[in-house]
Write a structure and sequence with these properties.
The complex is a heterodimer of chains A (about 500) and B (about 90). With about 500 residues, chain A is mostly helical. Chain A is built from 22 helices and four strands. Chain A starts with 10 loop residues before the first helix and ends with a helix. The mean pLDDT of chain B is about 95. The chains are: A mainly alpha (about 500), B alpha+beta (about 90). At the A-B interface, helix 3, helix 9, helix 10 and helix 13 of A face strand 1, strand 5 and strand 6 of B. Chain B: This is Monooxygenase.
Chain lengths: ~500, ~90
């Protein structure tokens, strides 16, 4: 007689057994001693069992799907390298966006891996603990696959070779680095709010979706593939972000003001950091998919609007200064690209002025601002270049104490006036680019007074020496290859030689 | 005002039956194609039915296979063996 067919457990039962069912209450050590970090921020949790992972992914299923993602990804990467995929990109200027990505973003993936590993040990509730363990592995996978993919470009182009060293030292890379350092030195609930909610849920679409779609449009098969492979984990990270917020708000009413303050802080910090992506989308992609302003409308105004409307039932409101950030979406890419153009001598990627065709695109996408405020500046610089007087800014800029970006941003409501704010703390004066950054400092002055500001460090003699050559050496930047304009760079010479060879074959 | 929920999937062979199923099962859904990916928006609620996808591919489709092609989402998610639902207010 055949035994009756065993009934398979459903997803909810499997999830309950494979997460909740594996946890236990400690008996010979106090739970507070085993989990010492999840109470000091003042977040009150009364019942951890109320947590539920909406994807209900268990570790065994996780391994299965991640293994399949890796197999697919590596097949493409191998084929890209074998078939000289670098020859198929739209233009060698495009590669500079990847340089910015590898030096600015990939090291953050590694930082995220480390900190989620910490949370995967130290969160008392088993649901979020397992989710953090998975995310820790995801982030390590992202760092590894990005390094692996981009190593192919490193064989042919400048600016990639010293990426971890540059991340720790170069002036503009201190913007993403300090963002993540700030999150990793916060408590676990603030880290979740910063990275899982404000970054992954509210803002990450602005980084990855246009970036990877841009890669697809510019013929970069390798980046599309690692990008979408990483992004497939992102949906899970987003659900962790939204669940953490709801969980904190549902657990105790005292949590609301703490969470609101974090949401305000991390929205503003994320908005400033993503200005680098804005510039990449509007100026660095030879073939453009959408403007930063359009991406902001889709992913913040529309998607964020629906999100915050939903969260309003808990009393949470739209992040402070969201209106100002939306106004800045008309300006931030132009102002950032202008900063990099002026300081191209100290940047680890190449810069250029937009062509007539590109300026026409910018006018069309930014009818309120480009022709009025930014076109005249680029045209003046173009005239100066034609006369052999290419403009370099040789003065070191003042940096914002919070976001660490040079103070090149303008006042809300007046794009002709640079914005400055300052405050005093223990007899010292600190400077900021905006009210948002000033508020963040004033809420945690002990922390932000310690910021490692690249310009201050250069003036204090901590960055290799007193002149540009010394500092570039300390950055491990190859002067004349990694930096300066695209025009005349070794990257350009090589690309032009490839194109000439291709033409010869075609004839 | 009804919030828009949204799912973005890769535009590849594996995701295509999923995209088709979503568009058929959610008549008010709207697909926005961009290079490499498709963003599907829908007012209030969007469902991905395992049955619809399974019919198209001729085998049992596990909703967790969505992990292989998903790019991004907006809304609160709920998943079981039969379907995956995105909505607000859950």
């Amino acid at each position: 007689m055949t035994p009756p067919r065993k009934k398979k457990m459903n997803l909810k039962q499997r999830y309950a057994l494979m997460t909740r069912g594996l946890d236990w209450e400690t008996s010979y050590q106090k739970m507070d001693d085993v989990f010492p970090y999840d109470t000091f921020e003042g977040i009150k949790i009364t019942d951890w069992s109320k947590w539920e992972d909406p994807f209900r992914l268990t570790m065994d299923a996780y391994w299965k799907y991640q293994g399949e993602k890796e197999r697919k990804l590596y097949a493409v990467l191998d084929s890209f390298a074998q078939n000289n995929g670098q020859l198929g990109i739209s233009d060698a200027r495009y590669v500079n966006a990847i340089k910015l990505f590898l030096t600015g973003v990939t090291p953050l993936e590694y930082q995220a891996h480390r900190h989620f590993a910490h949370l995967g040990r130290h969160i008392r509730g088993v649901g979020p603990r397992v989710a953090a363990q998975m995310q820790s592995l995801d982030e390590l996978r992202h760092a590894q696959t990005q390094i692996h993919t981009i190593s192919h470009y490193n064989k042919y182009f400048d600016g990639f070779a010293e990426f971890p060293h540059m991340h720790d030292r170069v002036w503009y890379l201190s913007v993403p680095k300090s963002f993540f350092d700030d999150a990793c030195t916060a408590g676990p609930f603030e880290f979740f709010t910063a990275i899982s909610f404000a970054f992954e849920y509210v803002l990450t679409n602005l980084l990855f979706v246009p970036f990877m779609s841009g890669a697809a449009y510019n013929g970069d098969l390798a980046t599309v593939t690692f990008g979408f492979s990483a992004q497939s984990d992102e949906a899970r990270h987003m659900t962790l972000g939204i669940e953490v917020i709801k969980f904190m708000l549902e657990q105790h009413p005292d949590n609301l003001p703490i969470v609101q303050k974090w949401v305000d802080k991390w929205f503003w910090r994320g908005h400033k950091m993503l200005g680098l992506v804005a510039m990449m989308m509007d100026y660095m992609l030879p073939k453009r998919i959408m403007s930063w302003k359009e991406a902001w409308e889709i992913y913040f105004t529309e998607a964020g609007g629906a999100l915050f409307e939903d969260l309003s039932r808990y009393g949470l409101r739209v992040p402070k200064y969201a209106d100002i950030a939306t106004e800045e979406a008309e300006h931030i890419s132009h102002q950032n690209w202008a900063i990099f153009y002026q300081y191209t001598q100290a940047a680890g990627f190449h810069t250029w002025l937009p062509t007539d065709e590109e300026m026409a695109w910018l006018s069309e996408k930014y009818p309120n601002t480009f022709d009025k405020y930014y076109r005249p500046r680029f045209e003046m610089w173009r005239e100066m270049e034609a006369k052999g007087e290419r403009f370099y800014n040789n003065a070191l800029p003042q940096l914002c104490q919070t976001c660490q970006i040079p103070m090149g941003y303008t006042e809300p409501g007046d794009p002709t006036k640079i914005g400055f704010r300052s405050t005093e703390y223990k007899g010292e004066r600190y400077h900021f680019c905006s009210d948002g950054c000033k508020d963040i400092f004033e809420n945690e002055p002990e922390k932000f007074a310690q910021a490692w500001l690249p310009v201050h460090q250069i003036f204090q003699g901590n960055c290799g020496g007193a002149d540009l050559g010394d500092v570039l050496k300390w950055y491990h930047m190859d002067n004349g290859a990694d930096n300066l304009d695209y025009s005349g760079s070794p990257d350009q010479q090589q690309w032009d030689a490839w194109q000439a060879a291709r033409k010869k074959v075609a004839n | 005002m009804a919030g828009i929920v949204s799912i973005t999937l890769q535009n590849n062979d594996e995701a295509r039956p999923v995209i088709e199923s979503i568009l058929e099962d959610n008549p008010s859904a709207n697909a926005n194609y961009m290079p490499g990916a498709v963003k599907i928006d829908c007012p209030e609620r969007l469902v991905v039915k395992a049955e619809s996808v399974s019919e198209r591919i001729g085998r049992d489709w596990d909703p967790q296979e969505i992990h292989l092609t998903i790019v991004s989402m907006g809304g609160s998610l709920d998943e079981d063996d039969e379907e995956l639902v995105l909505s607000w207010g859950a």
